[in-house]
Amino acid sequence: MKRIFVAGNWKSNKTWEEAKSWIDEFKVQSSKFKATENLKIVLCSPFTLLFPLKELINVHKLPLELGAQDVSPFGEGTYTGAVNAKQVKEFADWVLIGHSERRKHFGETEDVLQKKAIQAKAVGLKIIYCIQAENTPIPDGVDVVAYEPVWAISTGDPYATKPETPENANRVAEKIKQSSSGNLQVIYGGSTTPENVANYTSQSHLDGVLPGGASLSGTTFFELISHAINI
Ligand code: PGA
After folding, report:
1. Distance from the CA of 150 to the center of ligand 1, in angstroms?
2. Would the pTM count as exceeding 0.85?
3. Less CB within 10 Å around the terminal CB: N or C of the chain?
4. Which of 86, 104, 106, 108 is nearest to 95 (CA)?
5. Exposed/middle/buried for residue 171 (C-beta within 10 Å: 0-12, 13-18, 19+)
6. Is 30 in the pocket of ligand 1 (CB under 6 A)?
7. In the predicted model, is pLDDT for residue 204 greater than 90?
8. What is the pLDDT of residue 35?
9. Which of 10, 42, 131, 154 to mutate to test the pocket of ligand 1 (most atoms within 8 A of CB)?
């Protein structure tokens, strides 16, 4: 049985009040659910929410690991506004690097992304590295690769966009695995929903998904997870 990896990405959404409501919804759903070793759920939240979310996850013993959505390419020091890997590692186990929105809106280059990966690895953060095409370079030390073709990503409503076909996503995942060493997991991101997710997770080379819009409601996110593993 393969291990399914679901990483929700809240992007630039949610105040603390909204995050608490999300946790309440998720808690209700997850209490009906039997945890399994074959499922990993990661929630990538804004930096401001990592600390209080970690507390709530611990208090309620939720089957969730935390991830940041970014990390500084530098270490500690005179880099105003940057959050470094050591600071992230205090509250999160994972970090998303290379998301197309970071590349597009913040001008992040392969060189900067490589530096971020080095910083993350140095403190033991696990990396979900986003690539937009099968030939996008992948730095060393990445734990999970997320294939997220730019045109398939929703602007908030995953039902309003056309996702990549599961067959194409599977073909890309196979190529990535063939050209990597070890047990790299490959997931797909782009307009995934509770209704279409099993079409992806049932593909032989796809190990999970990276939902953005569909992770914004705790109930919908959990519904998506249930369908993802029901394959
Ligand atoms: P979406 O986001 O699920 O809202 O399309 C996916 C992504 O950003 O990779």
Report:
1. 9
2. yes
3. N
4. 86
5. middle
6. no
7. yes
8. 65
9. 154
